[in-house]
Amino acid sequence: MIDLKRNASVTIYEALKEKIMDYTLKPGQRLIERDLAKELGMSRTPIREAIHRLEKEGLVIVETNKGAYIAPISAADMAEIYQIRMVIEAFAGMLVAPYIMEETLNKLKQINEEMILAANIGQYRHADEKNDEFHTEIYKGCNNKRLYDMIIEHWNFARRLRTAVFSVPGRMKEVYDEHEGIIEALSKRDQELVEKLIRNHLVRAQEVFHKAVEQKLVLL
To answer: Is the domain of 154 the same as that of 86?
Structure first.
């Protein structure tokens, strides 16, 4: 027998998590069960279960007098994430470089073009998805499952703010150019250059993140 109550809870959980991850629901924003129930046309029980699951994952905070709200992200959290990503993603790129296929290089070029096209018409969420696809296409070839899983874990954490950061004027053109450099280095199978360019790509991403915070384009 299908557990309709459980399925409703899972559906709500997935929908809320996606909104948290793509920054539609921002840090500090309240989740009011009554309003969500009315909006979704569901009872409050599966909504409460979904919120509880998000709380266990650290994405939502529930306080007695304040209720449920989206968990904040500290600048220190993001700094630590970027530091780790600089190491593990650069290393993965170095592992991939000697064995990358021409088919993969062509796919990376296509994805990068689709990313900048989306950004040029203001579709930053779609551009972010293409950015995800670009890096995933590289790292999945590292032949190290534990390393790949670690990259995805840290990538997902940073995703909460990346769509907003991508709206910083000029950033997407920079990302496009940086990707082009990485593709060129990969085509030469130059491990040291690939490692350097991926690390520099993430250093610049961290700099832009701090700029976005200063300009209040991102709320922590």
So the answer is: yes
Alpha-carbon distance values, 60 to 5, 56, 57, 94, 211 (Å)? 21, 8, 8, 36, 26
Q: Would you call 147 helix, strand, or coil by DSSP? A: helix
Calculate mean pLDDT across residues 110-115. 98
- What H or E segment, with its residue span, contains residue 1? none
> What would the DSSP string read from start to end of 91-139?
HHHHHHGGG--HHHHHHHHHHHHHHHHHHHTT-HHHHHHHHHHHHHHHH
Do both 188 and 144 map to the same domain? yes
- Residue 16 sits in a domain of what CATH number? 1.10.10.10
Query: Bigger pLDDT: 165 or 59?
Result: 59
Gap between the Cα atoms of 151 and 149, Å rounded? 5
Q: Are residues 65 and 90 in the same domain?
A: no
Report helix angle 75-96 to 171-187, nearest 10: 30
> Distance between CA 97 and CA 92 in Å, rounded?
9
Count structural domains, the chain.
Answer: 2
Q: Which of 73, 55, 63, 71 lies closest to 13, judged by CA?
A: 55
Instruction: Report the side by side order of strands in the sheet with 67-70.
Output: 30-31, 67-70, 60-63
- For residue 220, tell me if it sits in a domain: no
Give the chain's count of helices (H) and strands (E).
9, 3
- Give the residue among 64, 60, 63, 28 at the shortest CA–CA distance from 47: 60
> What is the rounded average pLDDT of the residues 69-76?
86
Q: In angstroms, rounded to a whole number, what is the distance separating the alpha carbons of residues 44 and 95?
A: 49
Tell whether 113 and 194 lie within a shared domain: yes
Range of the domain at 55: 4-70
